[in-house]
Amino acid sequence: CQFFGGYPITPSSEVMQYLGREIWKYGGAVLQCEDEIAGIGAALGASLGGKKAMTATSGPGMDLKTEIMGLATIAELPLVILNVQRGGPSTGLPTKAEQSDLFQACFSAHGDVLRPVLAPTSVADTFGVMVEAFNIAERYQTPVIVLSDQEIAHRKETFDPIDTAKLVIEERLAPTAAQLEGYQRFAMTESRVSPVSHPGMPGGAYLGSGIEHNETGAPAAGGAVHARMNAK
To answer: Model confidence over 41-99: pLDDT tens digits?
Structure first.
């Protein structure tokens, strides 16, 4: 993770507090924003800029972040969203554990949208699950939701040292020099994953808006294009 954008909310605030202390050592940055929407918006902007980015929140914050998750989907940008679940609905039980946000994670989207959802089973498992979440996000250029909960987030647990040498770290697919000639950001490749540029890459400029588009990123409202892009 190279960027965290977020807003404090129990029981996820420790993620931002920890990264605020540690991420700078690895060249990353943390931005505490004015609200939940700005937090995920900043994270998505960092992803557009070519950085691995995430945000963290709880159930009420996930409600507010939903629209930007849709933007991440249609713009085909990697993004990791951690939901440290608590009791709901509304303000609910801020300091109690409840694993009740699965339907929200899977189905809280407008449009024909699918997104990966992962869940750790323990404190130790959280480490590997977060790595896998970033790998999936980068591989498929999609938002990925991780469902933790208050019980895992606020528990101390003893476990064996993690051999980080065994971890596989994936990067997003970058365009070749040939692909940057007449660059098509949303090109229909065999894998349906398109090479993604970042701002400042010569030849890599494209329109990355939230409106439906064709392969170049230009707005397109035809039913055939919409169906094809949804399938992509």
So the answer is: 999 999 999 999 999 999 999 999 999 999 999 999 999 999 999 999 999 999 999 99
Residue 122 to residue 105: CA distance in whole angstroms: 19
Angle of CA points 141, 61, 132, to nearest 5°:
35
C-alpha 179/C-alpha 166 separation (Å) is 33
Q: Which residue has the tokens 């329109």?
A: 207
Residues 6+ apart with CB under 8 A from 190: none
Mode of pairing for the β-strands spanning 53-57 and 3-6:
parallel
Its pTM stands at 0.96
Give the torsion sign (CA, 103, 108, 141, 43): negative
